[in-house]
Specification:
about 375 residues; 19 strands; Rossmann fold
Length: about 375
């Protein structure tokens, strides 16, 4: 089996799909690996390091795409490269399948078996392949570091001869993977941390990190089988906003992480709330690329409203590219290992397997993912 790992096309993307250490594991399993020349440079991995790991290095991107049995990358493929993939090729990457309908249909028409890394099930067995969680954890960390850098005061309490400096107040909205890491990081920096999530079940996790869980009675709330928060009713969203407003107004930093799987992010921090916050406060919106939780947020920009900085920087994991690459590489390598059959020397897609059933989007010339098909049926 031949695997090709192309260089990412986005100049702002500093992560790489597979690092040399994991290439060596793939080669050791009997897989032929080719990387595009310069693929690893953004994360400080030279072509020579990949060659030492057993890979071939090639500058012929188009030729390698045409001959590969499997392509591993981070971001969705450019539309003009889909036709270069051979029939039956397995393509692995983030895909955003709910919003990239045209690209998904194009991949299906090309006969490509497409695996979406966002769709890896959140199960114990699939945990080592869960790139969405590994990258979200890093995003939560980076969000706090950015907030600390942009805030014009320190996080920890300090007792000095000149007087006592009170700790900064940090409010984290959403206690999923990113939110929990944000809470832990803010606590390490000495801030006073509060957090809220629509799922009361996570209160214990929040409190175990030393933060205060903000209790809001929204009535019946729940989560999906995959551990994601379900969308609130309009009435519940308004109740949440009113409760959030009180805490936001008192906070120096607000970090929002609320996202709905396959749907636009809910608006949580409105302009009315922002106008009541103290000048100099900082808002970091981790959901900016899926619509945003903060009114007025702009992707890859820092805007100011009444003295409040609204930060909507996208792709936060790329800001810690070395570690992010290591984690994503481990996730992808674990997936290949799960699919690889030693006897046949190729990857097999068994649709009776919950992991394959959950993450494969296209196969055999058509869209096969049940969740995506259900959503499409409702939209039609």
């Amino acid at each position: 089996m031949q695997i090709f790992i192309p260089k990412e096309m986005d100049p702002a993307e500093r992560r790489v799909p597979v690092i040399p250490r994991d290439v060596a594991k793939l080669v050791g399993a009997g897989i032929e690996v080719t990387v595009e020349s310069g693929m690893g440079v953004a994360s400080r991995h030279s072509d020579a390091a990949y060659e030492e790991a057993g890979a071939s290095v090639s500058a012929d991107r188009a030729g390698c795409l045409c001959s590969a049995d499997m392509v591993l990358r981070l971001n969705k493929p450019p539309a003009d490269e889909v036709g270069q993939l051979k029939d039956g090729c397995i393509h692995v990457s983030y895909l955003d399948p709910f919003n990239e309908g045209e690209l998904v249909d194009c991949l299906a028409a090309a006969g490509v078996a497409t695996i979406s890394m966002e769709m890896i099930p959140r199960t114990t067995r699939a945990q080592k392949m869960d790139a969405l969680s590994s990258q979200a954890s890093l995003a939560g960390y980076v969000a706090v570091i950015i907030a600390a850098d942009r805030l014009d005061r320190i996080f920890p309490m300090m007792m000095t001869p000149a007087g006592t400096i009170a700790p900064a107040r940090v409010f984290v909205i959403g206690a999923g993977v990113a939110g929990l890491q944000a809470i832990a990081t803010a606590k390490r920096l000495g801030a006073r941390v509060e957090a809220f999530d629509t799922r009361p079940v996570v209160a214990e996790q929040v409190e175990s990190l030393g933060a205060k869980f903000v209790q809001v009675d929204l009535g019946e709330t729940s989560e999906t089988a995959g551990g994601y928060a379900k969308e609130l009713t309009p009435e519940q969203q308004e109740m949440q906003r009113q409760a959030m407003a009180k805490v936001c107004i008192q906070s120096d930093v607000v970090i929002t992480t609320a996202q709905l799987f396959g749907r636009p992010a809910p608006l949580i921090v409105t302009r009315e709330i922002i106008e009541q916050m103290q000048p100099g406060s900082v808002l970091v919106d981790l959901a900016c690329q899926s619509g945003g939780n903060v009114d007025g947020v702009e992707v890859d920009k820092v805007v100011e409203c009444n003295g409040v900085r609204i930060i909507g920087l996208g792709n936060l994991p790329a800001r810690v590219a070395v570690d992010a690459s290591q984690m994503y590489s481990a996730n992808v390598t674990a997936l290949v290992d799960e699919l690889y059959d030693d006897e046949s020397g190729c990857c097999r897609l068994d649709f009776d397997d919950e992991i394959v059933k959950g993450c494969v989007i296209t196969h055999g010339g058509k869209v096969v993912n049940e969740m995506l098909l259900e959503i499409r049926a409702k939209q039609n």
